[in-house]
Each structure stands twice: as structure tokens, then as C-alpha cells.
Design brief:
The chain has 401 residues and is an alpha/beta fold. Helix 11 links the parallel strand 12 and strand 13 (327-330). The chain has helices at residues 2-9, 16-32, 36-44, 78-83, 127-140, 164-175, 200-217, 235-247, 268-273, 285-299, 314-322, 332-337, 341-349, 352-355, 367-371, and strands spanning 54-56, 59-61, 65-67, 88-94, 107-110, 115-118, 148-153, 181-185, 225-229, 252-255, 278-281, 304-308, 327-330. The longest helix is centred in the middle third of the chain and has 18 residues, at 200-217.
């Protein structure tokens, strides 16, 4: 109620990017105050619930819902965001070189659509600056207070495609020791030519080089590596990425990024008037779920699948988990619903109605048929009895001890 009043009276009257800075600034200020993080947790974070835990990527997530990349590009508010109830925070996208991003205005709100359009363009202070900040955070904060932090890396805009691999490798090397997992972002629509890197011929050598760079930079700890894909890929290309991820023993896939499509809108003309950019929020819901189902049907439980795009309600979250998602990410719903929203979703996912829902059988496609009957890399226990609260809610996509 308080956030709704603040949004209606103040934030919605500010330009979207300024409203973001103001709202995020309040979260950061609250977390920096003496005892602030603890106070935020008491006010917003859901009570610890063993039934809600997820084991994935060799990590123990306190809940399946995390914050997607894009909200905290430079890792400046991780503690405050986690204190609101997110089970993990993905920072970035960061690039090897600092860059200002695209010209403003570059973010647009469409409340009637429950959507945002952005063409931010990877504005960030650079991977080296992020690494320094996270290194200090980990050194000065009690281990139990630091959330799981993923780092999303992208291509520097000024770098030509032929130098893209070296650019990603630089970022990966810089953040390897401070990231709990790393995501290669080849799917933002706001960097010219970036989505071309999703083709097999370009994506395979890129991921292979980043994997090698991470192993070299972090020889004692294998850093999980995922790739984030666009919802606008053709089905055949989605299958190719899924097969590639399996063949390379990639740790997972995030599906999906924002879309350039403008179908199914209440006022398509108003959204079109905002110009190019990635559309997020409710209009992405159906396609994101469709892509998730396709990937899971092809890969089974061999990969950690993080579903993002259009998740607003507990029912949305349940649909993704039932369709094969290991973890969830959100951004747009958090903008519209406010700081109490993560808690509502996490608590609902730990409730009997959500936690015990059976997982529907998804028809196998291609490679998934070959995997049928093979032992999974992780056990699926969404329908466990509530009384067995010592067992975590889900263990899909576990990649190691």
C-alpha cells in the first residue's frame, strides 16, 4: 500500500529512468543505515522455509525467485535487494570497458500493458569496477549475509564482432573470483549485432573461450556458466542452442531476454511510438513459457533452466516451475509491484498449493527422446510431502557438490 501510494504520487510522474534511480536509491540508503539490512529483512524478506530451498549450480538458493540482470548493473545495491526477499541477485550486464549506453530517453513505462521498453545499451562502469566492488563486499560482509550473486557479461559496443570473443573473455577473467555464476548475454536487442552471436558458428567458440577463461582464472572453484537467449529466436535455433549447451556441458540457460516483437498489445501504437528497444513484462509471458517448455523438453533436467519474462503472480511462477524451470527471475513486476512483491511470490511458492503441484509431462522433442530413461543430473521433488520440510523444494540442474 505504501509503495503503491509512492508510485502513484511520485514515481510514475518521473521519467522512468529517474524513477528507477530514485527507488533504487531508497533501497540502497536503507541498507546502508546502521542495522538497515536487518530491518529490511524483517520488513520484507520471507521467513526461512526449508521447503522453498533450491539446490542448483552447486549452490543453495534460499528461494527460487531472483532479480534479473539490468536492475543493478554495477552491483551497488546487492545487500538491500537481497534483503527484500530475492533468493539471488544477478548484476550487470557489465562489459570489459566502461560505457555510457545509449542516449536518453531509453526507458519507457506502459502500465496498462504491465510492460517496459528499454534500450539502455549496457550502460555500466566496466567489469573491473564491478569486480573491485564485489571483492570489497565479500571481504567486509559476513559470509551468511552475502547473497548468491550472478554476473551477466556482454559485449562492449565499440568492439567489432571479430574481437567479441576476446572482449567477453576479458570480462569473464575480471569477475571470475567474485561471481557465484556467470551469464553470457548474447541476446540484448540494444547492442547492434549482438544477437548475431546466438548462431551456432559464433556461439560455440565464444562459450568455449569463456569456459576456458573461467577455468584458468578460477582453478580451485568451477564457476558455473550459463547463456541467456532471446525469445525471438526461431524454434530451430532454440533447439540448436539447447543442443550446444548439452554438448558443451554448459551449466544452464536463461530463457528469456526481452523481445523486439510488439504483438498482442492493448495499444500497439503507443508502444511503437517509444521506438526500438526490448519489451519486457506481461506481453512476454506466453512466449517465454513456450521457449522454456521447448528447452526443457529437449534437455530434460540436465541443465539449470532459469525462466525470466512476464512472471507477475504466484500462478505465473508455478507455471514456470511446472514447465521445467529450476529458478526464476523477474524485473518488470518488481518495478510495478514494489519491494513487498518478492516476499509474496517466495511465500506463495512455499505454500502447499504451489510446492506440491505435480509436474506435467512435456512431449519430448528431438534429443529429449534420446535422453528418455537416462538418469537425470538432479532429482525433481516438487511434489514432496509437506511434512518432509527438511528436504529442499527443488534440485533440478544440480551441477556439482
Amino acid at each position: 500500500m505504501i509503495y503503491r501510494a509512492l508510485y502513484d504520487t511520485v514515481l510514475r510522474h518521473l521519467p522512468p529512468e529517474e524513477a528507477h534511480k530514485a527507488g533504487f536509491g531508497l533501497i540502497r540508503a536503507a541498507a546502508r543505515a546502521p542495522g538497515g539490512t536487518r530491518a529490511l529483512r524483517r520488513a520484507f524478506a520471507p521467513p526461512a522455509a526449508p521447503v522453498a530451498r533450491v539446490r542448483a549450480l552447486g549452490l543453495d538458493f534460499p528461494g527460487p525467485l531472483g532479480l534479473a540482470a539490468g536492475f543493478d548493473k554495477d552491483g551497488v545495491g546487492v545487500l538491500g535487494l537481497a534483503a527484500l526477499g530475492f533468493g539471488f541477485v544477478e548484476v550487470g550486464t557489465v562489459t570489459a570497458r566502461p560505457q555510457p549506453g545509449n542516449a536518453a530517453p531509453r526507458m519507457f513505462r506502459f502500465p496498462d500493458e504491465r510492460a517496459l521498453v528499454n534500450r539502455m545499451g549496457f550502460n555500466n562502469a566496466g567489469a573491473a569496477a564491478l569486480a573491485r566492488r564485489l571483492r570489497v563486499l565479500r571481504a567486509t560482509t559476513s559470509p551468511g549475509e552475502v547473497p548468491i550473486i550472478g554476473v551477466n557479461i556482454g559485449k562492449t559496443k565499440a568492439v567489432p564482432e571479430e574481437a567479441a570473443i576476446a572482449d567477453y573473455v576479458t570480462s569473464a577473467q575480471l569477475v571470475a573470483d567474485v561471481a557465484d555464476y556467470i551469464v553470457v548475454n548474447v541476446s540484448s536487442p540494444n547492442t547492434p549485432g549482438l544477437r548475431d552471436l546466438q548462431s551456432y558458428d559464433k556461439l560455440h567458440p565464444l562459450l568455449r573461450a569463456v569456459r576456458a577463461a573461467l577455468d584458468e582464472a578460477s582453478p580451485r572453484r568451477r564457476v558455473p556458466l550459463l547463456v541467456k537467449i532471446a525469445p525471438d529466436l526461431a524454434d530451430a535455433d532454440i533447439d540448436t542452442v539447447a543442443d550446444l549447451a548439452l554438448g558443451m556441458n554448459l551449466d544452464g540457460i536463461i530463457a528469456t531476454n526481452t523481445t523486439t516483437a510488439r504483438a498482442g498489445l492493448h495499444d500497439a501504437a503507443a508502444v511503437a511510438a517509444a521506438g526500438p528497444g526490448g519489451l519486457s513484462g506481461a506481453p512476454l509471458k506466453a512466449r517465454s513459457l513456450e521457449v522454456l517448455k521447448r528447452i526443457h523438453a529437449r534437455t530434460g533436467d540436465y541443465l539449470t533452466l532459469i525462466s525470466a519474462g512476464g512472471i507477475e503472480t504466484p500462478e505465473d511462477a508455478r507455471a514456470r516451475l511446472n514447465a521445467g524451470a529450476t529458478l526464476l527471475q523477474a524485473y518488470t513486476a518488481f518495478i510495478y509491484e514494489g519491494p513487498a512483491w518478492p516476499r509474496r511470490i517466495q511465500q506463495a511458492l512455499a505454500s502447499p498449493e504451489i510446492a506440491h503441484a505435480p509436474i506435467p509431462v512435456i512431449p519430448a522433442l528431438g534429443l529429449a527422446a534420446d535422453l528418455a530413461g537416462s538418469p537425470s543430473r538432479a532429482s525433481v521433488i516438487w511434489s514432496q510431502p509437506l511434512a518432509d520440510a527438511s528436504r529442499p523444494l527443488g534440485q533440478r540442474g544440480t551441477s556439482g557438490p
